[in-house]
Design brief:
It comes from Actinocatenispora rupis. The chain has a domain at 41-129 and 143-178: Orthogonal Bundle (Endonuclease III, domain 1). The protein contains 9 helices and 2 strands, in the order E-E-H-H-H-H-H-H-H-H-H. It has helices at residues 24-32, 41-54, 59-72, 78-82, 86-93, 102-118, 124-129, 150-161, 169-178; strands spanning 8-9, 15-16. Strands 1-2 form a two-stranded antiparallel sheet. The two termini are 15 Å apart.
């Protein structure tokens, strides 16, 4: 709807939130990927990792560096990363294509090991998706979108208990939005309900 204050109408006539309305990379990510269900182990692990790296930075920065992240971290294969040692940490700290933060790099390795261990108990994806709430937000404007929820707090707590790092409640809420567990598309957006998980 053109008069909806929560969305911006693009040249293509489609309604998007302001953050996805200008930058072509963000617009494509929003239109094709963000909020769509991700249920495979590697896909969930990658997004847990990238959301952790995003903390304190813009998502656009992480998205632009995603190809370099995938190359540097062996396409986010948990088994491969679980075997990383200090030489790999040094290699990653020297890689100008990624965010060079030792704590986040070391957390990525710990999280890979924790992901492998979780396979004996249902796996990472099943654990994360088990925190899907009964309802999803229905935001009209960006300010209506929460940044955490009881489920994201509980998921954060459980992942920490399982040995994960950089999985705070706000980061986990962003993960839940990104992989379709929640639908926080604005009500006026052309993507509302596109995941098939939640009704429009």
């Amino acid at each position: 709807m053109v008069d909806d204050p929560g969305v911006v109408i693009g040249e293509d006539g489609l309604a998007r939130p302001a953050w996805a309305s200008v930058d072509p990379l963000l617009r494509d990510y929003y239109d094709t990927e963000w909020g769509m269900p991700v249920t495979d182990e590697r896909g969930v692990y990658e997004r847990v990792t990238l959301e952790g790296f995003q903390a304190g930075l813009s998502w656009a920065t992480i998205l632009r560096k995603r190809p370099a992240f995938r190359a540097a971290f062996d396409d986010f294969d948990p088994d491969t990363i679980a075997a990383y040692d200090e030489r790999d940490v040094d290699r990653l700290l020297a890689d100008t294509g990624i965010v060079r933060n030792r704590q986040k790099i070391e957390a990525t390795i710990r999280n890979a090991r924790a992901t492998v261990e979780l396979r004996d108990d249902g796996g990472l994806s099943a654990l994360v998706w088990s925190f899907k709430p009964d309802t999803t937000p229905a935001p009209r404007v960006f300010a209506d979108i929460p940044t955490r929820s009881p489920e994201s707090v509980a998921l954060s707590r459980e992942l920490r208990r399982r040995g994960f790092s950089f999985v705070g409640p706000t980061t986990m809420f962003a993960l839940m939005e990104a992989i379709g567990i929640l639908d926080t598309h604005l009500l006026g957006s052309h993507r509302r309900g596109s995941s098939g998980i939640w009704p429009t």
